Amino acid sequence: MSAATVSEAQLSVLSVQVAQARHVDILGRSILTAFHKTPVTGPVAVAALGLRGDEQADLSVHGGLAKAVYAYPSEHYDFWRHACLAAGVPEARNPLAHGALGENLTLRGVLESDVWVGDVLQFANCALRVTQPREPCYKLNAAMGFNTASKVMAQSGWCGFYLAVEAPGTLHAGESFTLLPGPRSLGIAEWFKSKMFKHMR
Known about the structure:
Radius of gyration: 16 Å
Distance between the termini: 29 Å
CATH topology: M1 Pyruvate Kinase, Domain 3
Low-confidence stretches: none
Number of strands: 13
Order of helices and strands: EEEEEEEHEEEHHEEEH
Oligomer: single chain
CATH superfamily: PK beta-barrel domain-like
Strand order of the largest sheet: 4-1-8-7-11-10-9-13
Structural class: alpha+beta
Number of domains: 1
CATH class: Mainly Beta
Strand content: 25-35%
Helix content: 10-25%
């Protein structure tokens, strides 16, 4: 699906997730992380630094004004379930719960190839601006249950994207939104591919 063919009628938030940072055992080390997001119901307040009730553990790579909210396309969930099954993760026999990729917003109808830096997701009561792709790390491996998950994300290009808060307000699961084009000079998919190419050289 290209940016020019996104159907506004299909754009919606399937689920909204938040988490507080907590210590998790990863590779024998106690790591502070807020990766394990859980769904919330009803309107969620959206301020400059993200959703009420959400927290980022490592502000050097997550959070802040430019990465206040992380969005992920629901269309990739079947791919990840099969990747987990192929890696022998027993829990993958069941569908992955929304938030499994660490996202705040599980979206329907928009992929990485559909959004560009500066595009705006316009909701009824707030607006979020696309800023950059998410880069995979070892915490993704731990959350997905196999140690090559970050490599799979790098190769597939299915990274999701960060959002800045253009206009604070509220949003909720089930809400539709409109994708408003920005300058369209730098695409999320192209930026991610370039970043991963540099890392893997």
